[in-house]
Amino acid sequence: MPGSSRTSVTTMVTVLIGIAGLIFILARAGAPIAGAEPAARGAVVEFTPDGKLKQPVGYRQWIYVGASVTPNDLNGGKALFPEFHAIYIDPESFADYKEAGKFRDGTVLVKELSSIGSKETTSGKGYFLGDFTGLAVSIKDSKRFKDEPGNWAYFSFGHKYPLEAEVSKSPTFACNKCHQDSAKQDWVFTQNYNVLRAAAPRSK
Ligand code: HEC
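^ inputs. structure came back:
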Protein backbone atom coordinates (compact mmCIF):
# COMPACT_ATOMS: atom_id res chain seq x y z
CA MET A 1 0.00 0.00 0.00
CA PRO A 2 1.25 3.49 -0.87
CA GLY A 3 0.36 4.76 2.60
CA SER A 4 2.43 2.13 4.43
CA SER A 5 5.45 2.62 2.12
CA ARG A 6 5.37 6.35 2.94
CA THR A 7 5.23 5.39 6.60
CA SER A 8 8.27 3.14 6.25
CA VAL A 9 10.25 5.85 4.46
CA THR A 10 9.36 8.27 7.25
CA THR A 11 10.38 5.67 9.83
CA MET A 12 13.69 5.07 8.05
CA VAL A 13 14.45 8.80 7.88
CA THR A 14 13.61 9.13 11.58
CA VAL A 15 15.91 6.22 12.44
CA LEU A 16 18.75 7.68 10.33
CA ILE A 17 18.41 11.09 11.99
CA GLY A 18 18.38 9.30 15.34
CA ILE A 19 21.59 7.40 14.53
CA ALA A 20 23.32 10.57 13.29
CA GLY A 21 22.28 12.36 16.49
CA LEU A 22 23.61 9.50 18.62
CA ILE A 23 26.94 9.52 16.78
CA PHE A 24 27.17 13.27 17.33
CA ILE A 25 26.44 12.92 21.06
CA LEU A 26 28.95 10.06 21.45
CA ALA A 27 31.65 11.99 19.58
CA ARG A 28 31.17 15.00 21.83
CA ALA A 29 31.09 12.83 24.95
CA GLY A 30 34.35 11.19 23.84
CA ALA A 31 36.32 14.42 24.10
CA PRO A 32 35.95 15.14 27.82
CA ILE A 33 36.38 11.46 28.75
CA ALA A 34 39.69 11.27 26.86
CA GLY A 35 40.93 14.39 28.65
CA ALA A 36 39.74 13.33 32.09
CA GLU A 37 42.79 11.28 33.10
CA PRO A 38 42.45 11.91 36.87
CA ALA A 39 39.28 9.80 36.92
CA ALA A 40 41.45 6.75 36.15
CA ARG A 41 43.49 7.18 39.35
CA GLY A 42 41.87 4.39 41.30
CA ALA A 43 42.86 1.84 38.66
CA VAL A 44 46.66 2.04 39.11
CA VAL A 45 46.46 -1.13 41.20
CA GLU A 46 43.61 -3.48 42.00
CA PHE A 47 42.60 -5.29 45.15
CA THR A 48 40.53 -8.45 45.56
CA PRO A 49 37.29 -8.15 47.57
CA ASP A 50 39.13 -9.56 50.61
CA GLY A 51 41.85 -6.87 50.43
CA LYS A 52 44.68 -8.71 48.66
CA LEU A 53 46.74 -6.78 46.12
CA LYS A 54 46.66 -8.16 42.59
CA GLN A 55 50.02 -8.25 40.82
CA PRO A 56 50.39 -4.81 39.17
CA VAL A 57 50.56 -4.64 35.39
CA GLY A 58 52.25 -2.16 33.07
CA TYR A 59 54.66 -0.84 35.72
CA ARG A 60 57.69 -1.14 33.42
CA GLN A 61 56.15 1.80 31.55
CA TRP A 62 55.85 3.86 34.76
CA ILE A 63 58.52 6.37 35.82
CA TYR A 64 61.80 4.68 36.69
CA VAL A 65 63.34 6.40 39.73
CA GLY A 66 66.49 4.44 40.50
CA ALA A 67 68.27 1.12 40.89
CA SER A 68 70.47 -0.55 43.48
CA VAL A 69 72.50 -3.71 43.70
CA THR A 70 73.86 -5.20 46.93
CA PRO A 71 75.77 -8.24 45.70
CA ASN A 72 76.83 -11.12 47.91
CA ASP A 73 80.46 -10.47 46.88
CA LEU A 74 80.45 -7.15 48.77
CA ASN A 75 78.51 -8.51 51.76
CA GLY A 76 80.51 -11.49 52.89
CA GLY A 77 78.30 -13.79 50.84
CA LYS A 78 75.26 -12.86 52.97
CA ALA A 79 73.57 -9.89 51.31
CA LEU A 80 70.01 -9.33 52.55
CA PHE A 81 68.88 -8.61 48.98
CA PRO A 82 71.54 -9.99 46.62
CA GLU A 83 69.88 -8.85 43.38
CA PHE A 84 69.37 -5.76 41.24
CA HIS A 85 66.43 -3.62 42.35
CA ALA A 86 64.74 -1.33 39.83
CA ILE A 87 62.26 1.11 41.36
CA TYR A 88 59.26 2.64 39.56
CA ILE A 89 56.57 5.13 40.64
CA ASP A 90 53.12 5.44 39.04
CA PRO A 91 53.13 8.38 36.59
CA GLU A 92 50.44 10.50 38.24
CA SER A 93 52.11 10.33 41.63
CA PHE A 94 55.38 11.29 39.96
CA ALA A 95 53.73 14.34 38.39
CA ASP A 96 52.34 15.25 41.80
CA TYR A 97 55.75 14.73 43.46
CA LYS A 98 57.34 17.13 40.98
CA GLU A 99 54.91 19.83 42.09
CA ALA A 100 54.57 19.13 45.78
CA GLY A 101 57.85 17.42 46.67
CA LYS A 102 56.02 14.76 48.68
CA PHE A 103 54.24 11.47 48.14
CA ARG A 104 50.51 11.94 47.62
CA ASP A 105 47.86 9.64 49.00
CA GLY A 106 47.58 6.74 46.55
CA THR A 107 51.29 6.66 45.60
CA VAL A 108 52.37 3.24 44.35
CA LEU A 109 56.07 2.24 44.24
CA VAL A 110 57.24 -0.98 42.62
CA LYS A 111 60.57 -2.66 43.26
CA GLU A 112 61.37 -5.23 40.61
CA LEU A 113 64.18 -7.67 41.34
CA SER A 114 66.56 -9.18 38.80
CA SER A 115 69.32 -11.66 39.36
CA ILE A 116 72.93 -10.74 38.71
CA GLY A 117 73.77 -12.29 35.37
CA SER A 118 77.22 -11.98 33.90
CA LYS A 119 80.06 -10.32 35.79
CA GLU A 120 82.03 -9.47 32.74
CA THR A 121 81.31 -7.98 29.36
CA THR A 122 83.25 -6.32 26.56
CA SER A 123 83.45 -3.06 28.53
CA GLY A 124 84.99 -4.76 31.55
CA LYS A 125 84.13 -6.48 34.83
CA GLY A 126 80.98 -5.52 36.67
CA TYR A 127 77.46 -6.63 37.51
CA PHE A 128 75.14 -7.12 34.58
CA LEU A 129 71.41 -7.83 34.59
CA GLY A 130 70.29 -11.44 34.62
CA ASP A 131 66.61 -12.48 34.65
CA PHE A 132 63.62 -11.03 36.46
CA THR A 133 63.29 -12.79 39.81
CA GLY A 134 60.87 -10.93 42.06
CA LEU A 135 58.48 -8.10 42.75
CA ALA A 136 57.60 -5.94 45.76
CA VAL A 137 55.18 -3.04 46.09
CA SER A 138 54.54 -0.26 48.59
CA ILE A 139 51.37 1.84 48.67
CA LYS A 140 50.51 4.95 50.67
CA ASP A 141 46.80 5.16 51.43
CA SER A 142 45.46 6.96 54.47
CA LYS A 143 42.06 5.27 54.25
CA ARG A 144 42.86 1.69 53.32
CA PHE A 145 46.02 1.56 55.44
CA LYS A 146 45.09 4.00 58.19
CA ASP A 147 46.58 1.72 60.88
CA GLU A 148 49.98 1.26 59.20
CA PRO A 149 52.80 3.60 60.29
CA GLY A 150 52.96 6.46 57.79
CA ASN A 151 49.95 4.86 56.04
CA TRP A 152 52.38 2.75 53.97
CA ALA A 153 51.60 -0.93 53.31
CA TYR A 154 54.10 -3.37 51.81
CA PHE A 155 53.51 -6.36 49.56
CA SER A 156 55.87 -9.07 48.34
CA PHE A 157 54.96 -11.18 45.32
CA GLY A 158 57.96 -13.44 45.87
CA HIS A 159 61.63 -13.74 44.98
CA LYS A 160 61.28 -16.49 42.41
CA TYR A 161 59.16 -16.97 39.28
CA PRO A 162 56.33 -17.84 38.98
CA LEU A 163 55.31 -14.98 41.27
CA GLU A 164 52.11 -14.93 43.33
CA ALA A 165 49.09 -13.54 41.47
CA GLU A 166 47.71 -11.78 44.58
CA VAL A 167 49.11 -11.28 48.08
CA SER A 168 48.10 -9.93 51.48
CA LYS A 169 50.10 -7.05 52.93
CA SER A 170 53.25 -8.06 54.77
CA PRO A 171 53.36 -7.74 58.57
CA THR A 172 54.36 -4.23 59.70
CA PHE A 173 57.52 -5.45 61.47
CA ALA A 174 58.74 -7.30 58.36
CA CYS A 175 58.92 -4.30 56.03
CA ASN A 176 57.52 -1.03 57.31
CA LYS A 177 59.89 -0.84 60.32
CA CYS A 178 63.14 -0.79 58.33
CA HIS A 179 61.68 1.82 55.96
CA GLN A 180 60.41 3.96 58.84
CA ASP A 181 63.80 3.86 60.57
CA SER A 182 66.15 4.37 57.61
CA ALA A 183 64.41 5.89 54.58
CA LYS A 184 65.12 9.57 53.95
CA GLN A 185 61.66 10.86 53.05
CA ASP A 186 58.29 9.53 54.23
CA TRP A 187 59.31 5.84 54.41
CA VAL A 188 60.82 6.01 50.88
CA PHE A 189 64.57 5.61 50.25
CA THR A 190 64.84 8.85 48.26
CA GLN A 191 68.53 8.98 49.20
CA ASN A 192 68.96 6.20 46.59
CA TYR A 193 66.71 7.65 43.86
CA ASN A 194 68.43 10.40 41.92
CA VAL A 195 65.45 10.75 39.55
CA LEU A 196 63.19 11.74 42.46
CA ARG A 197 65.80 14.03 43.99
CA ALA A 198 66.25 15.84 40.68
CA ALA A 199 62.48 16.09 40.15
CA ALA A 200 61.60 17.56 43.55
CA PRO A 201 60.85 21.31 43.62
CA ARG A 202 64.07 23.29 44.17
CA SER A 203 62.92 24.87 47.41
CA LYS A 204 62.85 21.43 49.10
C1 HEC B 1 66.60 -4.09 56.21
C2 HEC B 1 65.79 -3.02 55.68
C3 HEC B 1 64.63 -3.32 54.76
C4 HEC B 1 63.58 -4.19 54.95
C5 HEC B 1 63.35 -5.15 56.12
C6 HEC B 1 62.70 -4.05 53.80
N1 HEC B 1 63.20 -3.10 52.94
FE1 HEC B 1 62.29 -2.39 51.26
N2 HEC B 1 63.90 -1.24 50.88
C7 HEC B 1 65.06 -1.17 51.66
C8 HEC B 1 66.04 -0.31 50.98
C9 HEC B 1 67.44 0.03 51.48
C10 HEC B 1 65.41 0.15 49.81
C11 HEC B 1 66.02 1.09 48.77
C12 HEC B 1 66.19 0.45 47.41
C13 HEC B 1 67.07 -0.77 47.41
O1 HEC B 1 68.20 -0.68 47.85
O2 HEC B 1 66.56 -1.80 47.05
C14 HEC B 1 64.07 -0.44 49.78
C15 HEC B 1 63.13 -0.19 48.81
C16 HEC B 1 61.88 -0.75 48.76
C17 HEC B 1 60.85 -0.39 47.81
C18 HEC B 1 60.94 0.76 46.82
C19 HEC B 1 60.34 2.04 47.40
C20 HEC B 1 60.98 2.60 48.64
O3 HEC B 1 60.29 2.64 49.69
O4 HEC B 1 62.15 3.04 48.64
C21 HEC B 1 59.81 -1.24 48.02
C22 HEC B 1 58.51 -1.28 47.24
C23 HEC B 1 60.17 -2.12 49.10
N3 HEC B 1 61.44 -1.78 49.54
C24 HEC B 1 59.38 -3.14 49.58
C25 HEC B 1 59.69 -3.89 50.71
C26 HEC B 1 58.88 -4.99 51.21
C27 HEC B 1 57.62 -5.51 50.56
C28 HEC B 1 59.49 -5.46 52.33
C29 HEC B 1 59.07 -6.59 53.23
C30 HEC B 1 58.81 -7.87 52.61
C31 HEC B 1 60.69 -4.64 52.53
N4 HEC B 1 60.77 -3.70 51.55
C32 HEC B 1 61.55 -4.78 53.61
C33 HEC B 1 65.25 -1.74 52.87
C34 HEC B 1 64.39 -2.65 53.47
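Residues 2-35 form one domain. Residues 68, 80-81, 85, 87, 109, 111, 136-138, 154-156, 170, 174-175, 178-179, 183, 188-189, 192 surround heme C (CB under 6 Å).
thumbs up if we can close this ticket
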